[in-house]
Known about the structure:
- This protein has helices at 2-21, 25-45, 58-70, 75-92, 98-126, 136-149, 151-164, 173-196, 217-280, 286-296, 298-301, 319-328, 369-381, 418-424, 435-439; strands spanning 131-133, 205-207, 210-211, 308-315, 344-352, 385-386, 390-391, 400-409, 425-434.
- By secondary structure, the chain is an alpha+beta fold.
- The longest helix has 64 residues, at 217-280.
Amino acid sequence: xxxxxxxxxxxxxxxxxxxxxxxxxxxxxxxxxxxxxxxxxxxxxxxxxxxxxxxxxxxxxxxxxxxxxxxxxxxxxxxxxxxxxxxxxxxxxxxxxxxxxxxxxxxxxxxxxxxxxxxxxxxxxxxxxxxxxxxxxxxxxxxxxxxxxxxxxxxxxxxxxxxxxxxxxxxxxxxxxxxxxxxxxxxxxxxxxxxxxxxxxxxxxxxxxxxxxxxxxxxxxxxxxxxxxxxxxxxxxxxxxxxxxxxxxxxxxxxxxxxxxxxxxxxxxxxxxxxxxxxxxxxxxxxxxxxxxxxxxxxxxxxxxxxxxxxxxxxxxxxxxxxxxxxxxxxxxxxxxxxxxxxxxxxxxxxxxxxxxxxxxxxxxxxxxxxxxxxxxxxxxxxxxxxxxxxxxxxxxxxxxxxxxxxxxxxxxxxxxxxxxxxxxxxxxxxxxxxxxxxxxxxxx
Length: 445
């Protein structure tokens, strides 16, 4: 009789202690929300730079312990606390417009709440509350259910929400999900046992029929101090490593930008030399152009360049007259392609080395918007212009590339206004680039 009475008293003491801390349901919900928000803020401080998924998310452990001890009816406290943490965090860095921030916070909070309810269910259905554990095997199964398996919910819902809203890229998806899952699992496996063995949780855990004594207040404080010190040291170390990496990256980026500017200047000077050849001659023959480009020695002095060529504008309806004039100049093998219904064509007349760029001869670059926009900009501004990303017709690898177009005007004519530049315009000296080759060996590092 006395034994059974003591067991009943032990089983009742845990809920009485937890329930006595927050006697009424609204107070319990509000207390859980505030606790979740506080631990959520602490978890955010532990997030490694640049600061999304945390190393440990103690709020996840509080949420599961709270539902296991106080019952499913306190779930609004988890939702409210999680919503506030995520809404404030996202809004403070202005990742998304307000409506998206609120929607993301709602979906993430729903995932966190579902995770807490599921974790509480596993504890209450497998061990009850106070917890009744009969051995290591039972404890291991419960830890597996409440930790790794339950934490799949919050990580999956949260990561999917941020991926759909564009905060997380596809390339970072798996890494982000693993960090989120690990942070929640760490919070559950560390915080839940601490709370169930806290000084106020007398009788909350029974091991093989015996009530486990909770930590003394001094021991509990010592554990918290050691845990906080460990996490703080890790955080400081991560920040130092991040700052070193950031400094190294910025130095590399500055070196690369300087080298890129120098390389582009070299290419532009080559195009300026081609323009000077046209301006100094009444007519540049294919042989003269071939000699000029051979002197440049692309492979050694201009890495990444596929050649240098000349593009002439042709108005719609004047194609045959244009081809006849080319034939008179010794180019009777050119075929304009592709055929379009545009009112102007920008035709590649010559490019050297011709053997490597035969597919480009006769190409009307006005067929594609990026080429067309850059050509018009160069013509109207008088400045060399780079196209946006394109695929070169002569590149069999279909790697991203671009064109550098330098406008050419008839000597002696005014080019101060757009109208004057268009009236004096003769064509473009241009160079095609394959992006990977252009960036190759940019700097020693």
